[in-house]
Amino acid sequence: MSETKKTDPVATVPAQASAPEEREVLLKVEGLVKHFPIRKGLLKRQVASVKAVDGIDFEVRKGETLGVVGESGCGKSTMGRVITRLQDPTGGTIRFEGKDITRLNTAGMRPLRRDIQMIFQDPYGSLNPRHTIGSIVSAPFRLQGVEPEGGVKKEVQRLLELVGLSPEHYNRYPHEFSGGQRQRIGIARALALNPKLVVADEPVSALDVSIQAQVINLLDDLQDELGLTYVIIAHDLSVVRHVSDRIAVMYLGKIVELADRDQLYRSPMHPYTKALLSAVPIPDPKRKGGRNERILLKGDVPSPLSPPSGCRFHTRCWKATEVCRTTEPPLIELQVGQQVACHHPENFDDQQPQDTVLLTASEKESEPVTEEAVEAAPEETAAEEAAPAGTAAEETTVTGETGSEEPADGPGEPAGDAEAEEDAPAQATAASDDAEGTSEKK
Amino acid sequence: MTELSKTGAAVGEPAPASPDGTAFLDVRDLRVHFPTDDGLVKSVDGLSFQLEKGKTLSIVGESGSGKSVTSLAIMGLHRLGARGKNVQMSGEIWLDGKELVSADPDEVRRLRGREMAMIFQDPLSAMHPYYTIGNQIVEAYRVHHDVSKKAARVRAVEMLDRVGIPEPHKRIDAYPHEFSGGMRQRAMIAMALVNNPELLIADEPTTALDVTVQAQILDLIRDLQKEFGSAVVIITHDLGVVAEIADDVLVMYGGRCVERGTVDDVFERPQHPYTWGLLGSMPRIDRDTTDRLVPVKGQPPSLINVPSGCAFHPRCPYADVPKDNVTRTVRPELQQVGTGHWSACHLSPEDRTRIWTEEIAPKL
């Protein structure tokens, strides 16, 4: 992946309202890979590996918020733990302020822990129940041997006030606090040493809506006040839209689209981004009819044990063609501030216009029986009833976006053995489901 | 219990509609209290609502507002668990002309699964890990139908097929752990619907799922409802899901209903400051505004020491608008504010309209 990506976003991103190009790069990640080996047998030989993060490049600029979204299992949390060096990367490089931190050992990382902090998802699991709040929030000072001005206790109480808790909470224990308050404690701990980069893994997803809004506002205020840089990992696209300047969309260990917030939500280029955005329920009953624009992806994410060949999304993509099955699309900057890894992007010129035979069309011809079985489940709209007939043109018209789709009505060769993940029984669901795979417009 | 009924008489809110009991599901002044060492937890404290067949009611509220306890009480499952032994329950739950609160547990058991079924949030813990999916569906069917195992299995395959599980005749012998989250939720829906229940209660059915899978499951529930004409109660905290799927909305706060109405009423003309707060707390994916969210300040109330007067008054920005400290002393009753629209708030209708149109709506 790293060698395929030639564009350097720093050099090419020109002035955008929300993309301050003059900001220096704080964190630069190149070709980052994290595989978890699966070992079996007496000799514990490695039989396979979970490719949680499989070659991603991005950078985080000072003072910005980078949002990372994706479905569960796409590797976004692993990515967060690797860039904070809580886990060791399998390959690639991580540079923090220009310094390569990829292979630093524990002792080498220690001074950097001041600058890179993490906020965790579960406010119950991330606070030691036997420590008081004072001892939890002052732990960073103890570990780093820092003596703040005016003493540790005073500083901790200042931090508690900063995150909206009362200084009197100093001697209490975590169980005395609600979920939202605990998350604030976790934030106070992360901020104790005045970090430069804060990686927050699902910081609000365990909280109630009203509390969620309080914590989002708090993170927002702290960024303004302290000039923090955030990497916020979340699955809630509404939250990510609200907090981020730029957003990376991950699918099966890869970044498929990385773009400025407004561009991404206004005109997503990757079909997966489009499907993801269209699936979010909109809290507006007047737009109930908007369901018709929804792209329903069939099935689940394939197994990261053996991701599909070529473009990883091709098994579920309604625009996939032969080239998607064979060639992995590089993440390139198709438009200022918008990098996409797709052969047939939405809202942009087709990258492989010569390749027009849709895999969906050929699959339908080859496996009409299974197709019908799945078809029976969701509601039978006109588009769906038309689908088994194999007229891919029908689908492309429903897609109804810019003219980047190619009308294809000729049958192609069967999509054959695109699914190779049969080796994992637990994943058979995903695999068999993907066989019918492809997505539908409703 | 005696004390309970006394307070019930004192503050009981009138059932807002159809006292003749014609509704398919009619909950009247339901109270579910759990005595604990720390005090009496009033999880549900005087809740009334009706639901017709073919309609979907969404119950929204924060954690601890009593929405899940309500659903468990309807299903007669509130007695389970360590806290359930001493549960105090009063009120009436009418399901298709039968009263469930005073009914014999065995009678409720016969209805459970057959007339009313439930989908839980986490299908992995709601299914038995030791039995195959098929076994569990077959069991659910044979409890209520005197059929052979073979016939029940045919029915199970049919249901798995109906909920969109590919190759159901093979997957029926899979164990829950072999299914992905979305598939498991589908299997649980198949299990819940195997007896064609007329009431389906879904407690946060999509909270544990990814958005793409959530869209599939919501579509499935909607289709199945159309097909079977069941009444559906969906408990959720996601207002996006509510807007998608519900006909009516019931907003719960501190164990009581604070607002009830059609989904259009509640989203377009909300009449309770707590509903305003919920709407203001939500980051919107469909709007370009990146202004600050307007959260509800403070924490959800303790159900042991529910604040006096209006339970929402400590967090309500408008608690001092009504005169004579009434928000702190008198508990507001549900009052009709429009056709099929009720709200429990001391603010005068003029104040409410003014605050909504001038202060809240422009910020959303």
From TrEMBL, chain A:
- Regions of compositional bias (Acidic residues) in chain numbering: 368-383, 433-442
Q: Where is the composition biased (Low complexity)?
A: 384-402
**PROSITE patterns from the xrefs?**
ABC_TRANSPORTER_1, ABC_TRANSPORTER_2
List the molecular function annotations (GO) for this entry.
ATP binding
Using the UniProt annotation, give all residue ranges assigned to the region (Disordered): 362-442
**Which Gene3D superfamilies does the entry mention?**
P-loop containing nucleotide triphosphate hydrolases (3.40.50.300)
Q: Where is the ABC transporter domain?
A: 27-277
The yes or no answer to whether the keyword Transport is present is yes
Q: Which UniProt keywords apply?
A: ATP-binding, Nucleotide-binding, Transport
Keyword Coiled coil tagged: no
Q: Which family does it belong to?
A: Belongs to the ABC transporter superfamily.
Tell me which NCBIfam families the record gives. oligo_HPY, PRK11308.1
Name of the protein this chain belongs to: Dipeptide ABC transporter ATP-binding protein
From TrEMBL, chain B:
> Organism's domain of life?
Bacteria
List locations, semicolon-separated: Cell membrane
The UniProt keywords, alphabetically, are:
ATP-binding, Cell membrane, Membrane, Nucleotide-binding, Transport
Q: Does the keyword Disulfide bond apply?
A: no
Principal localisation: membrane
InterPro entries on file: AAA+_ATPase, ABC_Ni/Peptide_Import, ABC_transporter-like_ATP-bd, ABC_transporter-like_CS, Oligopep_ABC_C, P-loop_NTPase
Q: Which GO terms describe its molecular function?
A: ATP binding
What are the residue boundaries of the ABC transporter domain, all occurrences included?
Answer: 27-279
**Gene3D superfamilies hit by this protein:** P-loop containing nucleotide triphosphate hydrolases
Q: How does it sit in the membrane?
A: Peripheral membrane protein
Pfam name, any one? oligo_HPY
Renumbered to this chain, region (Disordered) spans 1-22
Look up keyword Iron-sulfur and say if it applies.
no
Sequence similarity: Belongs to the ABC transporter superfamily.
Q: Which NCBIfam families match?
A: oligo_HPY
Q: What is this protein called?
A: ABC transporter ATP-binding protein
Q: Which organism is it from?
A: Streptomyces actuosus
Q: What is the lineage of its organism?
A: Bacteria, Bacillati, Actinomycetota, Actinomycetes, Kitasatosporales
